[in-house]
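Protocol step 6 of 9: fold each sequence in the batch and record its structure tokens directly after the sequence line. For illustration, a two-sequence batch is reproduced in full.

Sequence one:
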Amino acid sequence: MKKILIIDDEEKLRGLLARIVKSEGFDVLEAPDLKSGFKKLEHNDVDVVLCDVKLPDGNGVDFVQNIKASFPLVEVILLTAFGKISDGVQAMKNGAFDYIVKGDDNDKIIPLLYKAIDKSQLQKKVIQLEKRIADKYSFDTIIGKSKALEQAIDLAKKVAKTNSTVLLTGETGTGTEVFAQAIHENSNQVGKSFVALNCSTFSKEILESELFGHKQGAFTGAIKDKKGFIEEANGGTLFLDEIGEMPLELQAKLLRVLETNEYIPVGDTIPKKSNFRLIAATNRDLKAESEAHQFRSDLYFRLNIFEIAIPPLRERIKDIAPLTHYFVKQFSEKTNKKTLQIAPDFLQKLEAYHWPGNVRELKNIIERSVILSDDNLTSAVLPYEMQHQENSNTKSMSAFSMQSVEKLHIQKVLNYSKGNKAETARLLEISIATLYRKLDEYNIQ
């Protein structure tokens, strides 16, 4: 039940107003002066205050400021016997919802009350939604206690409060967007727009339109003006995932935006401005690609102000168990099952696997396993290659050895490329020099 506080020193008028408000189904509190009214606010969850302007211990117009300073979600409607335009203007400046004259405007009170309650409730919902978003994307929700992950989180926390451009590097599926969201929610841009665009999803022409927007008639199908992601991100954060896939021509245009905050929509001639924080992510070695002239070196240096390397899951073996428990609980609830128990052999197989798809692959495998299981999660519900991985040439090596996992993965990719070392390096997304060093280290022929 919504609570209304009536502050008026005239007992009969206050009582009459209380009866009218109660007849609408509201819970009513009463106070004869500002001091006792403020105490009522401190001890009750009040939605709207109906307050007289002239009271024994002060002026209601000034009192609005005190209420909004301490209880910003409470709406205040001021009531006065003698309306003054100057008082009304000042009341609204101080944060009052409205200012009405007793007697003349009595028929307005109840409709105004409902409008004020609607505004108060909307503000509360917005705050609750913002809190849920902040909780969902806080750094505390990033699961894992491995040293490599904690180092990445520490770096992200340090850069979050700045406006610096951030480059997130890591393999596909490591959770770059989760990091980007957490940085945004802990930044000066919190509460503003967070817009994300995957640069690998579109052709050059469509990506340009999505990024910069376009004018009506700019190309076939452009039936109206369209805002681009750069405009949508104004004042907030723009997250460009897979930025290494962006065509060179668009890289030059993006660089200009970063340097001048100006851009021109497709088909337009008038520059627009947008001030945003950029977070970019890539699974490519942009330094090597810039040296090979496959990525603009000037853009790379502009992006690489603050790099955070997000470790692959195979380097976070100790994080597999907590991630597994989290996903099992999540998908058990999603499929209306009781939370399934995890058998030791199930977890052992997960920890022995090399995870080329990282956390995203783990999430998908857990979802599949939960769907297939009715009781405990055992290794029997895992994909064939995970069940039989002990039959590979890593059988004699420790399943927990990073070296054995890395050696196996390099061998698989080398076999896939039919011994082509340049192609193997490209697929592994490492330099050819690094590949030769690894081949020598692991004695791979």
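Sequence two, same batch, same settings:
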Amino acid sequence: MGRGSLLLGQSRPSAPLGVTVALGVVAAITALVYPLREVMPAVSAGVIYLLAVLVISTFWGLRLGLLTSLLSATAFNFFHIRPTGHFHIAEAENWVALAAFLVAAVLASSVAELARARADEAELRRREAVLAAEMARLLLGGRRAADALEETGVRLADALQLPRARIVLGASQSSEPGARSIPLRRGDATMGTLIVPADSDPPVLERLNERIVPALETLLSAAIERERLQVEAVEADALRRSDEIKTAVLRAVSHDLRTPLTAIVASGDALGSAGLSSEERKALAADLTEEASRLARLVDQLLDLSRLEAGAAEPRRDWCSIEEIALAAAEQAGEPSQFELSIQRDLPLLHVDAAQLERALVNVFENAARHSGGRRASVRARVVDSTVVMRVIDSGPGIPKSELDRVFQPFHRGDGASSSRHRGSGLGLAIAKGFVEGNGGRIWAESLPGRGSTIVVELPVPSPQVGKPRVATGEGVA
């Protein structure tokens, strides 16, 4: 706020106080002129009354300024212009002096009133600028336009000293009694509606229509356009990611599906040869069975991944034994001799989807067996605080630090030299991550290069079940 605005104030003092001050100041100046008449002409001393006129005009406006001018002229005439004590002027030059005084007083009052009006207008403009900046911050600050409109309406009501103001998107005719609807347009279309009290002061409504509404329309239009562009950007990013997934799926189909299909076709053609021995036929049949099983597993993994990506893999929770799930997963993942299980006695029951968790552990166990180079993979399960922690440790070459987070991405395969010998699809750990997290757990990888890698599965134990004993089933099952 400027210095002139501070001097004039934002609101005028009361009129009765102004009349009292005018009378007091005119009386004081009248008394002051008496000793001054000893050193200067009385006519010249009348200029001091202009101080009273300026003070009253500055703080109370033109009307009280003119009243002060008349009071000053009357007092000056009665007490200091000859003949004193009468409202009569004997000499013509005193008439001229009194007329000049009145003109000067009126001009001073007018100038003070104009200064006040300009200060008030400057203050209004400042408030409108602050309001425009605040509306821009709210509407363009990153929130959705619909979410920012309520606070914008509150700030607008505060700035215009209205009891209430509300902004809604689209055309709206308010059903509130005593409300006025002001459309916010962009071209011929109505973007929103500003709803204010119908009995608002006409000057406030005029300011609202002439200066506030155009700025609000511009900001609301920009906010809606920004939101539209953000939606388009999100959709474009989703399409891009969908294209990447489709490309990855096509790569998997072109390689992982083609390989077993080629082997199946070749084995089927070979079985039709009349010159095969019974041993060769058994070997080809075994190859057919193995490749068909591999193809079935890949199809199941693709289906699991699609369900997880679509959010359609809602777990069906029940109380389950983690030991029983781990044993079943080990049997499905390979030969029992491939895994060394070390499971703590009396593990608490978990409230999870047993089928999903078993599917996740099968994928983790298969990954460990694949990277152990024929050696046994270690499976350990313990209670740590209020969680069950399972660590699946392989005997492979380890995972580089830069790859630890990427191993859970769909279709990701390690870049190590030994990775080319592995026939995994790159889906197992991604599916395991989806099922574990869907059941409220966490999964991550730990590794030191050259010293094997560890997949850690952490599952929460519901608080009523922590420490609850159950039948001991042994430890170190292999």
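Proceed to step 7 once all outputs are recorded. Observation for sequence two: The chain has four domains: 3-122, 143-235, 247-309, 318-414+425-465.
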